[in-house]
């Protein structure tokens, strides 16, 4: 995902409801979003949700593609009490710096970006992939209200600064 047009953003902690799935990202992402929207519709909460967030928790090279964890999440608008959400998990978007790239087009086509980000992402100098936070996809547009070619999503890779260590013989010179 190295792209000179990527930007660095700080994502704030955001209260989310979610549904989880485990498996190959290309298989589980569409299914878990369908399940989330069905549950939202059944509970009458579909109109009360905000922006969508996908959280890919695992590098397929480390855990195997069949063991990757993914959460389909939506922002909870203020005024909704957590006790009215028993069929959903409740979490907070992990805050921090992310290298983000805007994509446009079908959300289905964007899945391959999530699946490949772990092998293709090249951080800017001084930054490294932060393995303590998930890769986050932010879905800007409701696919029911926009044509596929007009959909926008930000793929956000968690980053942290590279801590340079000073060799002990050099440290004495400072």
UniProtKB/TrEMBL annotation:
<protein>
    <submittedName>
        <fullName>Transcription activator effector binding protein</fullName>
    </submittedName>
</protein>
<dbReference type="Pfam" id="PF06445">
    <property type="entry name" value="GyrI-like"/>
</dbReference>
<dbReference type="InterPro" id="IPR029442">
    <property type="entry name" value="GyrI-like"/>
</dbReference>
<dbReference type="InterPro" id="IPR010499">
    <property type="entry name" value="AraC_E-bd"/>
</dbReference>
<feature type="domain" description="AraC effector-binding">
    <location>
        <begin position="4"/>
        <end position="160"/>
    </location>
</feature>
<dbReference type="InterPro" id="IPR011256">
    <property type="entry name" value="Reg_factor_effector_dom_sf"/>
</dbReference>
<dbReference type="InterPro" id="IPR050908">
    <property type="entry name" value="SmbC-like"/>
</dbReference>
């Amino acid at each position: 995902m190295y792209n000179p047009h990527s930007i660095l953003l700080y994502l704030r902690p955001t209260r989310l409801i979610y549904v989880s799935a485990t498996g190959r990202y290309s298989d589980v992402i569409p299914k878990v979003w369908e399940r989330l929207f069905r549950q939202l519709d059944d509970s009458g909460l579909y109109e009360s949700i905000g922006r969508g967030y996908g959280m890919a928790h695992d590098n397929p090279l480390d855990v195997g593609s069949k063991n990757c964890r993914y959460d389909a999440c939506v922002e909870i608008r203020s005024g909704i009490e957590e006790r009215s959400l028993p069929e959903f998990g409740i979490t907070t978007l992990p805050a921090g710096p992310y290298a983000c790239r805007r994509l446009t087009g079908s959300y289905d086509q964007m899945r391959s970006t999530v699946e490949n980000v772990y092998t293709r992402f090249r951080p800017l100098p001084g930054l490294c992939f932060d393995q303590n936070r998930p890769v986050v996809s932010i879905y800007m547009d409701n696919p029911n209200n926009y044509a596929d070619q007009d959909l926008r999503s930000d793929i956000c890779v968690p980053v942290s600064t590279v801590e340079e260590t000073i060799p002990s013989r050099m440290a004495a010179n400072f």
